[in-house]
Every structure is written in C-alpha cells, then in structure tokens.
UniProtKB/TrEMBL annotation:
It comes from Algoriphagus machipongonensis. Binds 2 magnesium ions per tetramer. InterPro entries: aa-tRNA-synth_II, aa-tRNA-synth_II/BPL/LPL, Phe-tRNA-synth_IIc_asu, Phe-tRNA_ligase_II_N, Phe_tRNA_ligase_alpha1_bac, Phenylalanyl-tRNA_Synthase, tRNA-bd_arm. This is Phenylalanine--tRNA ligase alpha subunit. It is an enzyme of class 6 (ligase). It is found in: Cytoplasm. The gene is pheS. Its EC number is 6.1.1.20. GO terms for biological process: phenylalanyl-tRNA aminoacylation. Keywords: Aminoacyl-tRNA synthetase, ATP-binding, Cytoplasm, Ligase, Magnesium, Metal-binding, Nucleotide-binding, Protein biosynthesis. Pfam families: Phe_tRNA-synt_N, tRNA-synt_2d.
Length: 342
C-alpha cells in the first residue's frame, strides 16, 4: 500500500518544477521539510510492521534522496535564470549611448592663448570693473573734457549720471593698475567692453579686448615692437609679419595701429583685408607722460608702452570666422566645430 503512495510522491517530484525563488520554497515545503510529504513518511515508520520496516526505510530514504537531488537541480536552474535576467539589463553588445562632448568657446580659447603667450614673457593678469567712472575710462587717459576724442567711442552712459559708464575699452584697467602699483609693471588685462554701436558682421555693442601695459625705466618703442612681434608669431605662426601704422590715441604718444598679415589670404589680398593683405588687430603706443602723472608715476623716471587688441578680431583671424555675431548667438552648429578632437 505504502509502495503506491511512495511511487505517487516520486512521480510528483519528477513533475515538479520551479522558476522563481518562491517556487523553490514551495518545493522545499512540499518535499523536503519535516512537514512535507516525504517528512510525513518518516513519521509513518511507527505504523509499519517490524518485518517491513527495513524495506520501508530504504524506500523512504530513496525518495528523500530523489527529492534532495531534484531540489539542488531546481536551485541551480533558478540561479542560472536569475543571473541571465540580471545581465540582460546590461547588454554589452549595444553601441555606447551618444554623449555630447562640450568644447571651449572660441573666444575663451583665444583669450587663454593670449594670456599664455604674455604670461610666458613675464606679464601678470589684472582686472577692472565693467561699470567704470569717467576718470578711469577717459580723464586719466588724457581725454580732456568735451574733447572730440571721446566721440571716437560711442559710450553707454548710466542714465542720470554722466560720470558712470560701461567701459568702452580695457585701457581703464591700465589706470587702475598704475594707481595701485609701482613700476616695474607688466600686466595684461582681458575683459568685456561696451560701445553703443549697431550690431553687424564686423561690430557688436559688447565685445572683448585685452590690454597690455609695460612700465619701467628705459622702456622704448623697440620693446613694444618686439613684444607684439613675438605675440603675433606665437599666435598666428612664424611667418606672420607685423606692421605699425602711425595713429592717434589720447593716452599714447607716439601711437600706432598694429596690423598683421592677413591670415585669410596669406597677404595676397582678399575681401577680409580689403585687398591690402593686412588686417588691424589693435592699437598701441608709448604711454603719454600725462597718463603716467595722472596715475602718480614719475614720468621723468619711467616710460611705458601699452597696447589694446580685440579678442574677437584675433579669434576671427585665427579661426577664419567671417561674422562676429556668431560668437554670441550660441548656435550649436557653430560651437560644435570647436569641440576637442578625440
Ligand atoms: N583703447 C583703444 C581702443 O579701444 C586701444 C588701445 C590703443 C589701447 C592704444 C592701448 C593703446 O593701450 O596704447 O581702441
């Protein structure tokens, strides 16, 4: 009689299956634990006549072993399935997701490169405010009151206070440095400047300049020329030529505009350089003694040179950008071209 029962249990074990930890547990409860059907068989031992006890015991132990083997098999199976489903979350054969790599804005890159070139030859960095007073932007720089030279730069004044304006050039930082430091001074001042101009491909009301100032005993025009020549070669390449064109600025005497050979046509003449082969990158000159005196520097003992260059202009030549507005429009198609090449 019990043989039939045992055969039925064996059949049930053979048929049983488990795919989840929960199903495994059900199997354990049904066939392995003390309270399971197999456990129950051991409890029946007492009811079995003595002469059959041995045969019964062997059968029961056999079922127990079958149940345990099956249980191990099912544990293995569930574990495997578990591993597979976990690794299915990460499919190593998929192509990587497309991470966009940022780039450095061409103006930032240009400013950094300019700083690097001048730092290597002993210039430090200085800054000044963008909202500036008349003294630092004009008067100390030898722009007499009501002098037409002030009209050279269309100024944004702060309403109701003609003494305060958005700085029209970084030359204001020269004044601040000279007021606060004693020569020798070798400083570079990059920054944003403002002019009340109509926005076009060549002009903007907000742009960037970098100012350079060198004041010491015996600083001469040759130092200015050599410094800017060195800069031009470092920035644009060895073959670059520099030309100084006599000019006028109230704060320098003599004054010169700095031209370099046109990067776009290599000096042959094109529409960017208007056929001349030369492009202007800034202004320069020997600091006017009046300016030194205005800032408390003895102009009998010290001389200096200064220069101011447009960062946009330099970036346009360097990267052959034809429209200044691209710098501020944040068009990713433009900006993406300056991403690092990996
Ligand atoms: N501040 C002038 C401008 O914005 C540029 C300039 C010219 C700066 C001559 C200088 C300089 O330091 O010496 O047009």
């Amino acid at each position: 009689m019990y043989q039939e029962k045992i055969e039925a249990i064996k059949a049930a074990i053979a048929k049983a299956d488990a795919n989840t930890p929960e199903e495994l547990e059900s199997f354990r409860m049904e066939f392995i634990s003390k309270k399971s059907v197999v456990g129950g068989l051991f409890a029946e031992m007492g009811k079995i006549p003595n002469e059959e006890k041995r045969a019964f015991g062997q059968l029961v132990n056999g079922v127990k072993q079958i149940a345990e083997e099956k249980f191990q098999e099912l544990i293995e199976k569930v574990n495997q399935a578990n591993k597979k489903s976990k690794s299915a979350d990460i499919d190593l054969t998929l192509p990587p997701s497309n991470h966009e790599i940022g780039g450095i804005h061409p103006l930032t890159a240009t400013r950094q490169r300019i700083i690097e070139i001048f730092e290597r030859i002993g210039f430090n960095l200085s800054e000044g405010p963008e909202i500036e007073d008349d003294w630092h932007n004009f008067t100390a720089l030898n722009f007499p009151e009501n002098h037409p030279a002030r009209e050279m730069q269309d100024t944004f004044f702060i309403e109701k206070n003609p003494d305060i304006a958005l700085r029209t050039h970084t030359s204001s930082v020269q004044v601040r440095v000279m007021e606060n430091q004693k020569p020798p001074i070798r400083t570079l001042s990059p920054g944003r400047v403002y002019r009340n101009e109509a926005i076009s491909a060549r002009a903007h009301c907000i742009f960037h300049q970098v100012e350079g100032l060198y004041v010491d005993e015996n600083v001469g025009f040759a130092d200015l020329k050599n410094t800017l020549y060195h800069f031009a070669k470092e920035m644009f390449g060895k073959g670059t030529k520099v030309r100084f064109r006599p000019s006028y600025f109230p704060f320098t005497e003599p004054s010169a505009e700095i031209d370099i050979t046109c990067m776009i046509c290599g000096g042959k003449g094109c529409n960017v350089c208007k056929g001349t082969g030369w492009v202007e990158i800034g202004g320069s000159g020997m600091v006017d003694p009046n300016v030194l005196e205005n800032c408390g520097i003895d102009s009998k003992k010290y001389t200096g040179f200064a220069f101011g260059m447009g960062i946009e202009r330099i970036a346009m030549l360097k990267y052959q950008i034809k429209d200044l507005r691209l710098f501020t429009e944040n068009d990713v198609r433009f900006l993406k071209q300056f991403r690092p090449i990996l």
